[in-house]
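Example 3.2
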Amino acid sequence: MTRTILLAALLWPATALTAVHEVQVVNFAFQPQNVVIAPGDTVRWINQSGCHNVRGDDGSFGNGAVSCTLWTYDFTFTQAGVNPYFCTAHGSQGGSGMAGTVTVEGSAEPTFAINEGLAGAWYEPATSGQGFFFDIDAELTIFTGAWFTWTDTIGEHDWLTFLDTSYEGDTAVAEFFRNDGGRFDDPDVEVTPSEVVGELTVQFHSCASATATYQINETTPPKTGTIELIRILPATQLCEESSGAQD
């Protein structure tokens, strides 16, 4: 891929003819509670008061931990369907308490699809020195890989692996595992994965950009957040041919 094409892929979401729909977060409610939008439109949540956050029922979008600041959070919806969400401090999945819905009507063009050309190393430039490695089997719908990162203790490595065996469209929702038990260059010591420690949702926007939303359930409250990812190396022609995107 040339540098010009890569730049166009990164800029496409910002230049498309789309709308922004505002939802005010006031006291203990989302106003309006239910919004109807078109594919490619953006919903902007604006916290006016209190300590709140936004989290999709399926974990595919959200702005991380509860915050008492006057925050703003944007998310662009590309797939048709109903997207319920809630505040983790004052609501719950299924529309209980402080909750709302985003209904996306119609179908989006172009449609992006997870494909084997997305395999490789991805990272967020703001946190260079840590990142993700993705591997994909399109025939078996397997999305797997590892997140090479750090713990809350400075200088201490953390290695999380993940697996989704039934991804659809542009989004994979994978379970997190933590690997342990190995020793440097020793084939006789087996590395073993832990029990499930959380969930990773990755939505690919193009062959060069993606959004990763994570929840790690080892602390109270869980660690949650969103990371904007780009490829370390340019995308291959395989991704362009398999993505489902149209010119």
